[in-house]
Amino acid sequence: MRDLSGVFKAYDIRGVVGEQIDADLVRAIGAAFARLVGGTAVVVGYDMRDSSPGLADAFADGVTDEGLDVVSIGLASTDMLYFASGSLDLPGAMFTASHNPAKYNGIKLCRAGAAPVGQDSGLTEIQGDVERTLGAGPEALAGAGGSTNNRDMVRSAERAKGTVETRDLLADYAAHLRKLVDLSAIRPLKLVVDAGNGMGGHTVPTVFEGLPLEVVPLFFELDGSFPNHEANPLDPKNIVDLQAKVREVGADAGLAFDGDADRCFVVDEHGDPVSPSAITALVAVRELAKEPGGTVIHNLITSHAVPEIVAEHGGQPVRTRVGHSFIKQEMARTGAIFGGEHSAHYYFRDFWRADTGMLAALHVLAALGGQPGPLSELTREYNRYAASGEINSTVADQAGRLAAIKAEFGARDGVVLDELDGLTVQLPDGGWFNLRASNTEPLLRLNIEAADDAAVAAIRDEVLAIVRA
Question: Where would I find the Alpha-D-phosphohexomutase C-terminal domain in this sequence (predicted)?
């Protein structure tokens, strides 16, 4: 039986095209997904990578071989696929490797209403199904949406092959987002947008059309080879061009989208990054103004300023593990109006609890354009502490290094340990850090927050001395 554990991740399917992912595998995944979700149809979208249209077609072939129809929305951002899944009430598949380099591709899956499909909500079942199918030989592959000429003969006579319909939902997606944020009275703003040659170059012009915005575009040309920089704004080197252009043209703000445009990073008028925690707090305050007393979800790596500010504005903060499946589950359980993560994923109840960086960006523009001051002043009240950002260490024994940190800090007076997700260590002086293992790589990820940069540096040096020993 073929082992696909290197391709099936915690939240999606991802690998190197031609080595780990090919049309036959994707066709089998499409068939397995159709068997998992049932119903009548699946909506499919894809990003600008050269391999994406062909893989999406193979997936559609697997789905239609199981008797379900496919609604193809063509080029799309991931949150546009979620819009399609929610508005059409259909399960969906988005072909993208997000911010990964050009040689990668993958699939993000959801059930109808943009409900997540992860390891604990269907992805493990799909993996097992596909491994059995591929391990059973070409005949089984043909019957599960395979590539052989016998496929149509093997398909059950009672199950007619589904059809493929093409629909353009970009304008509907933009209109829906614009209904959720009142931008009617904002002042004119100059904005630099770095699409990173990703899907933001496809969606931003339509979403921003008609707004009082002077947009200075950077790298809007769709190009899955990423000729200018990786479409991963979480890495500081990938927002250097945005920062320089904001300063050069005297813009009010800058936005950077990742490859599939579901995450949005913000820089202020000085070109300085605005932390995703500050954006989470800003959007939470705006959502709480619409629904006083509402619940706001935040993962355990967001700044402690987030739950503080939510509580100060009458909201109910709820802490959860890192990852979209956990955020969405908690939003469903609590009826939360909004959720945010340190990685710039923002989730909205009014967007089927799915993450959309574009909607978060519209909230930032509404807040900035609704008052006369600069973005740096607007966000200052949401930045209360110093933070390290994510620090990665390659280690052979993740569990052993975590145990060493637990033993060292757990023996100290006044230290509180929390193992909700990795190890969170709350220090007596108010500082804290979280150390957690990567789901996909031999890495330990460290995040630190403290009163000032010197305190952050002291914690960093002490923890890394143990982790990297």
Answer: 390-464
Q: How far apart are CA 171 and CA 151, in angstroms?
A: 37
Alpha-carbon span 17 to 290, nearest angstrom: 45
DSSP code of residue 104 = E
399 vs 84: CA distance, rounded Å: 41
Active-site residue flag, 85: no
Q: Which of 72, 74, 57 is nearest to 22 (CA)?
A: 57
Q: How far apart are CA 44 and CA 27, in angstroms?
A: 13
pTM of the complete model: 0.92
Domains in the chain with CATH codes: 13-168 (3.40.120.10), 179-384 (3.40.120.10), 386-467 (3.30.310.50)
Write the pLDDT tens digit of every residue in 309-347: 999 999 999 999 998 888 998 999 999 999 999 999 999
pLDDT tens per residue across span 220-273: 999 999 999 999 998 999 999 999 999 999 999 999 999 999 999 999 999 999
Instruction: Name residue, tokens 């000032």.
Output: 452
